[in-house]
Amino acid sequence: MSPPLYAWPWEFLASYKYAIYGILVAKGIYSKYQEEEESWGIHIFIISMVRLCLYQACTSYSNMLFLTRNRRIVNKGVGFQQIDKEWHWDNFILLQAIVASLMLYIFPTSGKIELLNKNGITEALVLHIAISEPLFYTIHKFFHGNYLFTNYHSLHHSSPVPQAYTGGHATFLEHLLLTIVIGVPIVGSFLIGHGSLILIYGYVLIFDFLRCLGHLNVEIIPHRIFDLIPFLKYMIYTPTYHSLHHAEMDTNYCLFMPLFDALGNTLNKKSWQLHKKNYSISDYKERVPDFVFLAHIVDMSSALHAPFVNRSMASLPYYTRIYMLPFLPFSFTVMLLMWVKSKAFLISAYTIRNRLHETWAVPRFGFQYFLPFAAEGINKHIEEAILRADRLGVKVISLAALNKNEALNGGGTLFVEKHPNLKVRVVHGNTLTAAVILNEIPNHVTEVFLSGATSKLGRAIALYLCKKKVRVLMLTLSTERFRKIQREAPPDCQKYLVQVTKYQAAQNCKAWIVGKWITAREQNYAPSGCHFHQFVVPPILQFRRDCTYGDLAAMKLPQDVQGLGSCEYTMGRGVVHACHAGGVVHALEEWSHHEVGAIDVDRIDFVWKSALKHGFKPVSSITTSNI
Asked: Are 356 and 312 in contact (CB under 8 A)?
């Protein structure tokens, strides 16, 4: 059972808690209708929304690894567990909105409030230094006592990687006390008679910004400022300063002013030296990843599914969210800017067995890969990313989706042939993709229908299955391509490869392997009870209720993955596309060859077993491993 005032009163409401803000808006509109001099409900609602945006902006900045990676303090990824714990980080904003509303209801203001009163701002600053700072310091130090820390404050310290959201992640009791701390200067200035609207907005937002600053996990304050004005380091803390408190917990208790730690003899002596070190970190000290997955942006909507846009949303599988549609013009603008000038950038990172794995993105959207005039520019971006990885000392770089398109660069062959001395291994990962698809097919299947049959994956699947005496109906209009693949099969297996030119040829086949987009009409040729396996991106729409549909080829990462806090496109948590997993296996096995061009059919089983050996798990509910 939780201790008193630990849980939030509206916990049972979950996300419906935001409806409470509607009451404030309604009250504000009613006040306007009644022609009251101040619509406090509207003011409280506006300032609450601005506060939410401020915390979101600071958290987004922390997650912009392409900007912040060299000045991060705790150099770890924010995992799903921390994200879930901090999901309702904004409870305190709602609490303070409710408290402010109740105060104004009990003690209504008379007359119109001034927009600005300079005396009030001075008084608020004095009250902050004289009361709020020492009050918070004392309360905070008490909460590090055995009982209060174990039962309350440990929740705040349970987040291994501080971020702005972490500042709001605490118990109901702690935020009640923090409400008093933030309220003293505002209420005090109004009691003196010098309160103003700018004081309220300004003080609250500056207070929030400094709270975000302390939990930013990125050192942004230049150490030279403290060299020029030494006393300033006692007047304002830094992200490093507060991170030391989270790391060691017995020092640096202050709200914003280290002066009170100095007076209380709780100032960590490493604070300034560590601050200088964290701010001075340069590129050459950056940790080099062992593996890079080179992805690209799919479309305008999925572009908003990045961790630096909204980490909570990115921690769930992607789908089109209606409330994100108003941001599509912003996404479109960014697309245009990246088209003009950009380079591959870092999206996310995680570790497996102390090996750093990163996801980089080519700054191009899916539709651009189908523009003939854009091909050269896209290949240039991919080439630059490969060469950069090679300079850094990356061991393996895996090409995602359209970055390894056969028509674009021959599945990566273009880059390997152009740069024969590459130390980084270039990998398309499709060997494991083929293995995942093949291991979904039950062992009793004797016939399959294959579209996209002459593609890189289609060829490998057809050759593998024919060796297992499975009849493959290969949909292709090109007899030349079909014959070329058929000649690769052993002579006694060639008869199992059959060319078909129409979907009607598969109307009695209950195992369809889809490598090319098919419409509802084309799906209707499949018999009832058919299962659609697929390796087409995006996945086909599920029109047939009397049939079943497989997922895109994917695997779940090993259990010892750390710092993973975002979902890969539509995949579930901890699940990655099979080509991504194939690149990781390549890195873990330390294979020295490039995996580009045509798939080596003889390695499919070997790569599959290697993936399972390293703890990868198939995610399809029908995987049988029997073929």
From this structure: no
